[in-house]
Amino acid sequence: SKLCFGSLTISPLQSNLSVKEGAKVIEEAFNRGINFIDTAELYNNYNHIKEAISGKRTKVVISTKCYAYSREGAEKSLRKALNDLNTDYIDIFSLHEQESHHTLRGHMEAIEYFVRAREKGHIRAFGISTHFVSGVYASLDYDDIQIIHPIYNKAGLGIVDGTEKDMRKAIEMAYNA
Q: What radius of gyration, in Å, describes the C-alpha atoms of the chain?
């Protein structure tokens, strides 16, 4: 779907819904035509999603994120997502909150692991999430980064190193690339 359900809102970090209540919210999103779910290891809500997608996995696109920087950490995060979501693959697996060339270089072992996991079919696409304009620009230097998930809103809230216009320009450049 063009809209993505951001599951941070149902997680222990925000509304702290029970698994059953969170699954019910996700199911309502499905009923309204949303079949794209964003989550992250940090959100601690894989069980909510697992309950909601039971029997619907092939109809749902799942995007998740982690902070892994090593091969071991990346493997642990991917295994956790696959096991906790009870799925054979993750549609989009991203490194969470990447800031710049420096953070991408610091996560190179994890990037290499996720690229191999994609080649093996465990993930379908690899990407980054970012609150930084510089993170969007840095990702353009990496052919293996297929998805860029930047923060964006017309007020520019949460954009750390620029304005809404700066982020829009970076997103347009990424789109064109």
A: 16
Amino acid at 16: N
Q: Name the residue among 114, 111, 52 with its Cα closest to residue 89.
A: 114
| 65-112 per-position pLDDT tens digit | 999 999 999 999 999 999 999 999 999 999 999 999 999 999 999 999
On whether the pTM is more than 0.85, the answer is yes
Distances (CA, A) of 160 to 27, 42, 53, 86, 129: 33, 20, 34, 35, 13
| Cα 43 from Cα 138, distance rounded (Å) | 25
93, 117 Cβ separation under 8 angstroms: yes
Return the number of other C-beta atoms located less than 10 Å from residue 88's C-beta: 9
Rounded Cα–Cα distance for residues 169 and 177 (Å): 12
Taking Cα atoms as reference points, which of 102, 163, 175, 104 lies closest to residue 133? 163
Please state, in angstroms and rounded to a whole number, the distance separating the CA atoms of residues 132 and 112. 22
**37 and 9 Cβ atoms separated by less than 8 Å:** no
